Amino acid sequence: MKSSVQFPEAKPELLARRLYNDHGPALHRWLIGRFSDAQMAEEVVQESVLTAWRKYEQFDPERGSERSWIFGISRNVAATRYQRNLRHLRSVPTGDTLDTIVDDAELSRVTERSLIADAMASLSSDHQLVVAAAYWDGLSTKEIAAQLGIPDGTVKSRLHYALRILRTQLQEREVLR
Predict the structure, then answer these.
(1) Distance (Å, whole) CA 82 – CA 104
(2) Phi, psi at residue 53, to the nearest 5°?
(3) Comparing 16 with 110, which gets the higher pLDDT?
(4) Please, are residues 151 and 166 in contact by the beta-carbon 8 Å criterion?
(5) Res 155: pLDDT
(6) C-alpha 154: how far from chain center
(7) Contacts 24+ apart (CB under 8 A), 44-50
(8) Which domains are seen in the chain, by residue range?
(9) Each residue of 115-166: pLDDT tens digit?
(10) 66 neighbors 59 (Cβ within 8 angstroms)
(11) Are 15 and 9 in contact (CB under 8 A)?
(12) What DSSP state is assigned to residue 80?
């Protein structure tokens, strides 16, 4: 029985190798800062690549880059592993301390920033300008209108539609519920 999965590479095993080569080093650097344990970071990278390979048919380039998609998978794998590790008691020799505490909230924030940047990139340049001016520069719609030389109503309209698109994009990426 043939699989209905369409792989971009000629052979499915080449996809797994490419995913690891393209994204493994960046995932590893990101995870080593979270776990401060190279072995755990590598295990999460391998599990993330395997999950991405198995679910590659779910990847939609219109929703974001392959990198942000695999980082989202990695965030979930890391969070699950971290939660699982919290449930198990460990014997720690006296005098040994943990070098770094994994901050799951920071892990989520980094991933969400990447997903938000991808969602912003999906907007037209006109929409990106008004969103950036309103939320990063803190300008009012009247100030944005004056700066861009367009009517205030146009700024409000662009902002409305841009936020609607962003909300949909972020819900699809599971940043928003």
Answers:
(1) 8
(2) -65, -45
(3) 16
(4) no
(5) 94
(6) 31
(7) 44/74, 44/77, 44/78, 44/81, 45/20, 45/74, 46/20, 47/77, 47/81, 48/73, 48/74, 48/77, 49/16, 49/19, 49/20, 49/23, 49/24, 50/16
(8) 9-88+100-122 (1.10.1740.10), 123-177 (1.10.10.10)
(9) 777 788 888 989 989 998 998 889 999 999 999 999 999 999 999 999 998 8
(10) yes
(11) yes
(12) H
Q: Is 72 exposed, middle or buried (0-12, 13-18, 19+ CB in 10 A)?
A: buried
Residue 77: its H or E element? helix 66-87
Rounded distance between C-alpha atoms, residue 58 and residue 106, angstroms: 26
CA pair distance 26, 67, nearest whole angstrom:
9
Mean pLDDT of 11-22: 83
E-state strands within the chain: none
The length of the chain in residues reads: 177
Q: Are 78 and 44 in contact (CB under 8 A)?
A: yes
Per residue in 74-101, pLDDT tens? Answer: 888 888 777 666 555 454 555 545 555 5
